[in-house]
Fold:
Amino acid sequence: MTCHEFLTYLFDREQTKELAVELAFAIDEALLAQRRQLAIPA
Structure:
């Protein structure tokens, strides 16, 4: 199961819809931070 499939699974259920949204935001922020780190030479 991919991350996207898991988030969709959670989002499709009323009990876990808010959790899916929060996880999606957290994952997006983590990916953006990782991209920023890779773009800045050390």
The radius of gyration is 13 Å. The longest helix spans residues 17-39.
